[in-house]
Amino acid sequence: MAKIKGQVKWFNESKGFGFITPADGSKDVFVHFSAIQGNGFKTLAEGQNVEFEIQDGQKGPAAVNAEQGMVVKKGVPALTGNFIQWRFGLLCVAITGSLIFLLGRIAWLQIISPDNLVKQEDMRSLREEPIEVPRGMIEDRNGKPLAVSVPVEAVWADPKTVMEKGGVLVNSRWQALASALHVPLSEIAARIHSNERGRFIYLARQLDPQQAQYIDKLNIPGIALRDESRRFYPAGRVGANLIGFTNIDDQGIEGIEKSFNQQLTGKEGERLVRKDRYGHVVENITENPASPAHNIQLSIDERLQTVTEDALSNAVSWNKAESGAAVVIDVQTGEVLAMANYPTFNPNNRDNAKLDDFRNRAISDTFEPGSTVKPMVVMTALQQGIVRPDSVIDTHPFTLDGHHIRDVGYYPQLTLTGVLQKSSDTGVSRLSLAMPVQNIWDTYHKFGFGVPTAIGLTGESRGLLPVRQRWGELDRATFAFGYGLMVTPLQLAHVYATIGSFGISRPLSITRVDPPVEGQRVMPEEIVHEVEHMMESVALPGGGGVKAAVHGYRVAVKTGTAKKIGPDGKYVDQYIAYTAGVAPASNPRYALVVGHQFDIAKEGYVNLLPVQHKRSKDPGDSAEMMQARRAFLDAGHYQPLRDTLCQLLKALAPSALLDIGCGEGYYTAGFAAVVAEKGGETWGLDVSKVAIRYAAKRYREIKFCVASSHRLPFADESLDTIVRIFAPCKAEELARVVKRGGVVVTATPGPRHLMQLKGLIYQDIVLHSEEVEAMPGFTLQQTLQPGWMMNLRGDEAAALLQMTPFAWRARPEVRDALKAETAFSCETDFVEGKPHAHGHRIKAGGNCGGDQQPETVAMNFWGIFLSRPAETLQHHTSAEEYQQNKSHPVVPFQHNLAGEQAKAPADKRGNGFNDAKDQTGAQCFRKFRFMQCGTLADGSGEGIHGHAESEQESCGEIHSYASVGDIHIHANHPQLYDGACLWSRLLRTLRRTCHVNLRSGYNEYVDMYISACGRNRLLPNDGRNLNIFF
């Protein structure tokens, strides 16, 4: 037991030990706090007298070493008296060892391995920086920029620096940054915290310089700017599908931008620099200069591209098409002057664009070319000697392998020109079957089908030109009119550029080239020239491409329509329509292909009403009128009229019927049911798009189209029957589309039609005429006058008013009164006429003989004489006068006026003749003309003179004189151009002399006329008149 008594010398409470000076004067005793606590002390203070005991060998928190006079903590070695000396020696050894290590390390780094330190230093301070090259410009052929690069800035962050400066703080500067970048501050914080030890992340790209300058002024630690560029397209949507666009790193990913990416980007340079800890360049060490980018000058003309795209967009929109493409090529150089697509997009803002909008359909979409290949078939037949240019082809319908090969119209025989003009499938099929199919295949291949055009655009399709070991007769026939092969619009344009260069195939180019451009001849020039001349007839009256005609400009075109192939490999009710051609035809400079894909099943109809033929934005009946019409007709109030018309049609049994002015389809549906009994086809036509939409949605089995009744979108002689109920039409247009022996059924209001309804609106009621409308070129065969009384409710009477033209004149109180009626009776009165096509009915001055004259009759179509047998002709004079003139069998222009008998004036509808006397009573037949249908006869009654007065100038451009044995025709150049290809159809039984007034610059029209008529005998030209006998 050790006993300690003394005074506390010092005590460190935080460290838990101290020293006590014993009272007996011995050495100071080291005391641990645990020993003090064991004797009841909580703490010790300096100078405090203490006394306590600790047993020797105590196994507690502390023990007393009596010999050393110390209290030590258990497990701590006892301190000896030389503790201080030992500690000092240990410290010296440690310092000496450290110095030796440092000197050795210095020697290692400086002498033995100095390069490693330099390498580490370079890794920390040296940086390789790219020397960026501005992307090259894309220009049109005139140097107008289509794609340029503009300077922009990128905002980036150094996450490590940001975190060292306190991270993303919720203060005004960080809030301003978030607002400038249009992103939440939380999103910025999340991106930085996602990689806190990183040194570079983008916060925003391609900011405007003004926006970047504002961010730079915020002076936020760890936020910096970086220069970059952004692609800008000055023309916007113009040429977007062709030019393409770049990604955010300025690399081309579509169109020209992708195809010419290497030339546009050049090659970046590099420079090696040394930077300090703040990222500032303190030394430029080395530099590898950049290779500059190249500008690309396209062959595209931006102005022509704009016009082409506008025209294509209008055509696609009005035809309710899904897509379209157009290509214009310079025939002499092979340069692509325009390449338009629809749909398109704005490359400067692609946010709402669909992936399908980016496609360049002119090079990627493939389709069966249809009738556009027929000129190549005719060329092949001429080259193989199968036919001559003046050959006549049997075009009767025929059957191959159970499939009918027929044309839209009925043509027993056609010349080669007629085959192209009428787009005769039977004609080219017979040509194809008359020669090995390999001949046609070779022609297609030489003209460019089945191989890429090598224009250099990424994504171009090569199309499909099938290679078969065996060809069936049906395959050979359809191959001749464009089925069984696939082409792109650009390939088809290349073909017509070859036609325009008269057989020389030149390589296509999307970049500007300088003439001359060499090419390869693929077809003899004289053959291509002959066929190109034939193609001119397609755009002339009677051809399938009349809408492609340009007034005063000669064009050679060919149209083609083909069904689309569905995903299952079968044809679907979707169509591709293309028109291809060259212009001007006399010396072609441009080749053009334009087409669109439309889906009848999607909207139920096609829009064939060109914009220039509309008199208002939405012509025809409105939606309100259609709703009222449907409600009234569905109630069955006009059912008797529809039943009557259907009975007439059952007797006619037409195979192709057109309902003009079909409205919402009520009558058309009834007609279609009758026509379908014999397997026929029914079309409905109306100028109102609203009406056609109503019809197409309800009657899916009928084909509907939006079109003008004055410009019917049907081929010549392609319809058996036309029905028109209250629909205005042109008689000559009806005569054009109706086949020989076809019928036009007309329903017009009778005198008492809706008398009670008109009585509510008009004070003086004007009755409709009792006479049937005169239709030149037709003979009235039957007239019906159905009528009945309708008992209507008030709402039905209001609907009847709304569907009639009276609605425009009805006052609001009349409408309200009708709706309030519980019952309203109204009378119907109709006149139905069934005129036979190409007959004649003229009422002269009220006297009309009933005799028939089955002689040859010269009829007037398009200002040209045609001869056809007159099955029924009501003479223009009395029966007695007819007997007196039997010796004159020729009845030109549908009328034979005998002597001085017909002096009664005609009414304004042209049902009679103008008075033929002047004020003195003498005959003045030269000064008067027969209204609409013809002209006056001279005093002897042998012929007719047609001389219009000044106010009738538009109707009197063509002056004719006809007598027994010969006809003289005098025309100026517009009439010669419009009707030249039809002159070969003049009366065959008469000797004719044609006088053409030659004017400066119109020699090509005369050449065209001679070619169309034939060169049987050409008399010397005196410089003013050209006499041709044939």
TrEMBL record:
Bilayer topology term: Single-pass membrane protein
Gene Ontology CC terms, in alphabetical order: cytoplasm; plasma membrane
Keywords for this protein: Carboxypeptidase, Cell cycle, Cell division, Cell inner membrane, Cell membrane, Cell shape, Cell wall biogenesis/degradation, Cytoplasm, Hydrolase, Membrane, Peptidoglycan synthesis, Protease, Septation, Transmembrane, Transmembrane helix
Transmembrane segments: 88-108
The keyword RNA-binding is annotated on this UniProt entry: no
Localization per record: Cell inner membrane; Cytoplasm
Any one Gene Ontology BP term: proteolysis
Residue ranges of domain CSD in the record: 3-68
Gene Ontology molecular function, alphabetical: carboxypeptidase activity; nucleic acid binding; penicillin binding; peptidoglycan glycosyltransferase activity
Keyword RNA-binding: no
Main location per the UniProt record: membrane
Domain of life: Eukaryota
HAMAP family cross-referenced by the UniProt entry: FtsI_transpept
The protein, known as: Peptidoglycan synthase FtsI
Organism: Beauveria bassiana D1-5
Species classification: Eukaryota, Fungi, Dikarya, Ascomycota, Pezizomycotina
